[in-house]
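Researcher: Please generate the 3D structure of the following complex. Treat every line as part of one assembly.
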Amino acid sequence: MRTITYGQAISEALREEMLRDRSVLIMGEDMGVLGSVFGLTKGFLEEFGPLRVIDTPISESSFTGMAVGAAMRGLRPVVEIMYVDFTPVCMDAIVNQAAKMCYMTGGQISVPLVIRAPGGAGRRNAGQHSQSLEALFTHIPGLKVIAPATPYDAKGLLKSAIRDPDPVVCIEHKLLYATRGEVPEEEHLVPLGKAEIKRKGRDVTVICYSRQVLFALEAAEELSAEGIEAEIVDLRTLVPLDWAAIESSVKKTHRVVVVQEAVKRGGYAAEIAAQVMENAFDYLDAPVKRVAGLNVIPPFSPGLEDLIYPHKQDIMQGVREVLR
Amino acid sequence: MKTGGYDRETAVKFYREMLRIRLFEMKAAELFSRALLAGNIHTCVGQEAVAVGACQALRPGDYITATHRGHGHCLAKGGDSRKMMAELFGKSAGYCRGKGGSMHIADVSLGILGANGIVGAGLPIAAGSALASKIMGKDEVTLAFFGDGASNTGNFHESLNMASAWNLPVIYLCENNRYGVSVCIERVTRVSNLAERAKAYGIPGVTIDGNDVFAVHEAVAEAARRARGGEGPTLIEAVTYRHRGHYEGDPQVYKPKEEIQEWKERDPVAGLKRKILEEGLAGDEELGAIENELRLEIEEAVEFAMDSPYPDAAQVTADVYSKDNEWGVAR
Ligand SMILES: Cc1ncc(C[n+]2csc(CCOP(=O)(O)OP(=O)(O)O)c2C)c(N)n1
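Model: Done. Output below.
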């Protein structure tokens, strides 16, 4: 199979969906002339024109609100918020409008909107450009949330998200854009709400998503040398959660480590841990362990920034602790 | 460019301040290209007259809010080049102890309420600072620097409305450098003149040549006079240009080459130097000496920054709250 980058995978997903469905359009800052600050929509303006590839003013609150309106009228806008850190600027449009519309109109209206928002630390961009804010969105009923780790999943999930009738928040880790992986030439979809076992193992279940999947896989390789076989469950979709995948893995391994880059307190890993304890307590041989970011603001200084999110060693350590 | 009414000292001082910013940023750009600095660097090369003209019209006790392109604002308001450079390096001797980097320089003792990574966020903060001055009966003004891009955010409109309704002592200074990243202002707004927006809020709006430090100085001085006199905010649009990319490394594919060239010929630093020489306010030798002095200052700042230690790992959890306590941070 051919190999492409995560960024190319997203670009292909957008382009293919725009070609397939004339109601799909792209909105956001610098998406047109520049082809997006991450280079994902290069050439789109020429190919699809300014009504479908819209360079917005710096007006997140209003252009996201407009995307909600357009989606209510049957279009399928894909909005990019340049960094997930800027979503707080437009939280009303996302939380009170997009997420509520279907329910509060008694199902009359759906909002087929995708909000793409690069997140994550590691690029020395300091506190307002490095956060992992997915937990804010997983807490809101009415939103779906995806966080792909590989080019294959990024393309397949984004295409599914665009076809989905509900608002989907797609969190892309900035440091994944340049990573490479196999993606089929022909059309492929990854359904929302399906986790994937990225590595089989018998001793411990490591539940993770986004960039931490790569770290977890590295950790698993090293642990294997120590005789520990970790099963890596990549959630891929955070909402809706694939509980069946988690449960069957827990029944097999009886030990769970949940990994996230985001700040530990109030994070999505806490939700997973709680669900495991609520619904699969009898299968557990040890308390669920969270490996997560420090409860701090991402600092600029390189040495400090690298301390705030989990690395391979932290995951290995977490695994050893639940195996003790 | 006019120097009428400005004496020799003032003209030379303005030149010195502008050149300091230019040299600081060209050095930062060079360090970045040599991979000695991490993160992003947004320079204001070409816009120095706005920062200097404005800050020179303020008093030391006045406040500013800066932007992501804020080195010039901070230096012009009195920022220490050593502490600034150290922050760009992520060193503990930096203004933010290495936690903020280029985009977040703050020094409250100098009235710098912070550069900001969120476009438009500084405008309501400036209005809030002005509100505080008003409530506390202090004779201070607050000036918000922001870009043409930021003038399209909700924050711009909402804060101008409140500031004008309540006659707050705030100055809105828009640096219209034509672009928000790649998006040219004409593509996202219909008013050819952003200062016209002042009408909607019932306050004065003036458009000035942002490459003319004296014009900026005059406009801000007048706005500050109004603000202190209880007459409320002013919107100033300073028309200028950034010579370099949005960030260092940006090839600026979205800008016409001739446009960049045209504006480079109107370089505010070179222009002021020419003017000073033409009018005989200072000689080549004097200006050369100033340049040498400033180069030395910047070299020393770099040395200071490079010699300073990185923050200790224990600092990673410090300052999350203003009074550090274990339970706040750790769990
Ligand atoms: C709320 C928000 N949206 C988007 C960005 C990304 N961004 C950073 S600078 C910038 C352009 C700002 O343009 P302008 O206000 O004109 O200032 P300039 O860069 O020209 O100085 C953008 C879109 C951001 N930092 N914050």
